[in-house]
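During the no-cost extension, the postdoctoral fellow (Dr. R.K.) reprocessed legacy sequence entries with the updated structure-token encoder. One reprocessed record is reproduced below for audit purposes.
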Amino acid sequence: MHRTRVTLVGHPFAPHGMGEHLRATFRALRTAGVDASVRDVYAMYDPEAHETAGDLRRRLVPRIDADTAIFVINGDEREDAFLELGAEVGRVRHKIVYPAWELPRYPEIWARELEHYDEVWAASRFSVDAFAKTVRIPVHHLPLPCHPILTRQLSRRHFGISETAYAFVFFFDLTSYIERKNPFALLSAFAKVREARPLADVQLVIKANHKQVDPAAFTRFMAAVEPLGRSVRVLDRTLSDNEVKSLVAMGDAFVSMHRSEGFGFGPAEAMYFGKPVVATAYSGNLDYMTPDTAHLVPYALVPVGEGQYPHGEGQVWAEPDVEAAAAHMIALVDDPARGRALGERASAHVRTHFSLRAAGLRYAGRLEQIARARAGAVVRRAEPRVDEAARTTA
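Re-encoded structure tokens follow.
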């Protein structure tokens, strides 16, 4: 039996969501027996600096070496990436794009860019709906896997976090737009926790990445942190992949008051590690969250503000209920055992339905469909044409 081969194209060593997107896809494909290689389109990041990506380094290729390629890039990157790749693109017989998007409607200008590919893979049902509204090529729902790699569990002391506090964890990247990640709502909810339980030993730990991308937004964020004093610990340096995973694993709970997510690796990884999650009941995270596996926060849909997100004009996203989020957080502080039970259910759910094997088999199934369709097309082209007039005469 012919083994499926595919090349993933994108940013395999990037310390952000699209890098994690590619790494997770690669590992799922390999787990399912797909012969996957990796083409680092710009080589912007040092592969050796990524301590948990040795498996990708071993499969790096200098050019696309399969006739099916999965481009793990966004619509606005297509032109630059194709220019960088040059003639390599022309040798690919089936081009798949696996982008990220976080609003209900994919922008028209980027939709036309996606039509340089043969099909779109969408990481969540929410994303499927967003792409389907504007993209005129097939869109397939192929959820991402969640299998964080933790090479060495770091202690709370490593991060300067209280050894005794009930620690709520959250992280956001300013390249992903601060209003979408919505840390201000989380700070408001945590303030309500402090007001309701003034003697409780609680701490909020927030990792903020790439503060230099939007210094004004980061300054505004730190001003909102200040009234909460030492009960909030902000980690504003770039953490290694193992540090990020350790941070999630050592916390007691994870909270995401996002306005919208395409998938949401942070909450998914927390669930994988058995942590109770409090999260907005909206967008891509609902692929892997249910009322039985997470504390879901109700919301109201509100317009995306001017300048808050690319192509946000005329679109909406969620405004989570701060009071409801605070109530969930207080319940976790009051009854940690109940939170741990929720985390155990969450972990079983993610490890079963969003494992590398489960996702990899979904990927392999779609690639097999592509291969069969291609083989069928070859057979049809090879069949001799019958002259209908001659057949009638005979």
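The first strand starts at residue 5 and ends at 10. Residues 169 and 247 are 8 Å apart (CA to CA). The remaining legacy entries will be reprocessed before the final report is submitted.
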